[in-house]
Amino acid sequence: MATTLYSTPCRSLATSSSSSSSLQPCPLSSNLAYPQRVTFSQRFLASKVSLKSQPQPYQIPVHTQQPEGTVTAAVTPVENGTSHKQLKADLLSLKSPDESEDGFEKDENESSVSITVVGASGDLAKKKIFPALFALYYEDCLPKHFTIYGYARSKMTDAELRNMVSKTLTCRIDKRENCNEKMDQFLKRCFYHSGQYDSQENFAARDKKLKEHEGGRTSNRLFYLSIPPNIFIDAVKCASLSASSGNGWTRVIVEKPFGRDSESSAALTKSLKQYLTEDQIFRIDHYLGKELVENLSVLRFSNLIFEPLWSRQYIRNVQLIFSEDFGTEGRGGYFDHYGIIRDIMQNHLLQILALFAMETPVSLDAEDIRNEKVKVLRSMRPLRLEDVVIAALFIDNARWDGVPFLMKAGKALHNKRAEIRVQFRHVPGNLYNRNFGTDLDRATNELVIRVQPDEAIYLKINNKVPGLGMKLDRSNLNLHYAARYSKEIPDAYERLLLDAIEGERRLFIRSDELDAAWSLFTPVLKDLEEKKIIPEYYPYGSRGPVGAHYLAARHNVRWGDLGTDVDH
């Protein structure tokens, strides 16, 4: 009988020999009258202990496996009535000669995680990365031995970094116990190092500081590149050559944009791979860490009601909508160079589309999921100029042949939202057509997955209004997250940072996936730039360009977000 004795509220740390983590609770066996196998995580010694109730206590040899050999200890058996708490305490008290008094191995056999935020003085680091790391610390999701470092060109002391970071930290709305105490403890683990991004000498000094804090433990190092893309390679080169771990793992998180077309993206990947392997590169798209995006595969593959309907036989069109109610304030230069297609469509919305449309993966393993996403992307037609006011995409495979996937993304619009809308086909020979008149779209079933804000999943169905007559309306079967779940939804960066620390890659973008994504958009982007196509103007705060409606009409689609019905 397998018995697991150690877990945290975040993710199970006590696992079998498999490296995958579990989200299941870790039970404590209630029957201890016969042999047990107790398995600990790498933080503990792996032990096999035989416990039997005996009339009189006596000594039982215990063999404790370690890399260097086998150590024999002695254990006094327990009676049947011994409490779980006492048994756990006794087991955790077992120590080999190389174990310290706190129940862990000595420092040289432990591991540490050092997280270096490159570009620590920038907005992304202040507003997202440091707060996400604190949230993980508050939830006890970070390893025992972790240290956070800020690295940037700005001159700053440790105290000044901590003061800067402290202004952005908050505790969960639903969980504020010991908030100030936790903040103080977290800030004590934050340090700063000033240096140039292209200086191996500065990174070598960084390496020296890292080793001081690692204290002889196995060193695992994560570098988060929160810097402009034109200095990615310089920073990666210096980090790889001068500050890589000598006895653990080294991983690098790279922020978008990953180039601006197929050629520049391929060049960036080639340059990164001069210093890193593909497994060390974590290309982050924070939309993949959002709760409703991660729930896509759960919704589809664990509910029998949806999977049979997830194809051209029942789905008329799919809409991926992104809108913001503010303009390019403070980012005008960036948008002049990259634009909304590169910033939103080619990554955020295309990643969501790939997850939505992929075939069932062999397993939930990262590579199996990413393999299916690549297949979808390679099945899609490259965009043409006539497809762009809003992007219209088609997937040429058996499941989705002929189904338009419409993307709409813009700033300075009438509201802020990101959602997926799945409009189903009309019911053939619908007995109640006369109740809807000539506008059959009023009778269309629609599944809406609202990614942000105010997360929700709802299904629009036709329903009889109570009364003596036969009046129909459209009602929502609604899962409103704020009403259903009291727990605050974690920020996307929390999930992705934790995955990077644990080596979980399924929510990060692989290089061939990136190549396939750019191959769809590069031809139309070149056409737009070479022919100097002027985007259609629209008033600030409006619903967007009129041309969006003509493009939708061409594919016999009505935008779902323009209806008058209530969406929540």
UniProtKB/TrEMBL annotation:
<dbReference type="InterPro" id="IPR022674">
    <property type="entry name" value="G6P_DH_NAD-bd"/>
</dbReference>
<comment type="pathway">
    <text>Carbohydrate degradation; pentose phosphate pathway; D-ribulose 5-phosphate from D-glucose 6-phosphate (oxidative stage): step 1/3.</text>
</comment>
<dbReference type="Pfam" id="PF02781">
    <property type="entry name" value="G6PD_C"/>
</dbReference>
<dbReference type="Pfam" id="PF00479">
    <property type="entry name" value="G6PD_N"/>
</dbReference>
<feature type="domain" description="Glucose-6-phosphate dehydrogenase NAD-binding">
    <location>
        <begin position="117"/>
        <end position="295"/>
    </location>
</feature>
<dbReference type="InterPro" id="IPR036291">
    <property type="entry name" value="NAD(P)-bd_dom_sf"/>
</dbReference>
<feature type="domain" description="Glucose-6-phosphate dehydrogenase C-terminal">
    <location>
        <begin position="298"/>
        <end position="388"/>
    </location>
</feature>
<feature type="compositionally biased region" description="Low complexity">
    <location>
        <begin position="7"/>
        <end position="26"/>
    </location>
</feature>
<dbReference type="GO" id="GO:0009570">
    <property type="term" value="C:chloroplast stroma"/>
</dbReference>
<feature type="region of interest" description="Disordered">
    <location>
        <begin position="1"/>
        <end position="26"/>
    </location>
</feature>
<dbReference type="GO" id="GO:0009051">
    <property type="term" value="P:pentose-phosphate shunt, oxidative branch"/>
</dbReference>
<keyword id="KW-0313">Glucose metabolism</keyword>
<keyword id="KW-0119">Carbohydrate metabolism</keyword>
<dbReference type="InterPro" id="IPR001282">
    <property type="entry name" value="G6P_DH"/>
</dbReference>
<dbReference type="InterPro" id="IPR019796">
    <property type="entry name" value="G6P_DH_AS"/>
</dbReference>
<protein>
    <recommendedName>
        <fullName>glucose-6-phosphate dehydrogenase (NADP(+))</fullName>
        <ecNumber>1.1.1.49</ecNumber>
    </recommendedName>
</protein>
<dbReference type="InterPro" id="IPR022675">
    <property type="entry name" value="G6P_DH_C"/>
</dbReference>
<dbReference type="GO" id="GO:0006006">
    <property type="term" value="P:glucose metabolic process"/>
</dbReference>
<keyword id="KW-0521">NADP</keyword>
<keyword id="KW-0560">Oxidoreductase</keyword>
<dbReference type="GO" id="GO:0004345">
    <property type="term" value="F:glucose-6-phosphate dehydrogenase activity"/>
</dbReference>
<feature type="domain" description="Glucose-6-phosphate dehydrogenase C-terminal">
    <location>
        <begin position="389"/>
        <end position="559"/>
    </location>
</feature>
<comment type="similarity">
    <text>Belongs to the glucose-6-phosphate dehydrogenase family.</text>
</comment>
<dbReference type="GO" id="GO:0050661">
    <property type="term" value="F:NADP binding"/>
</dbReference>
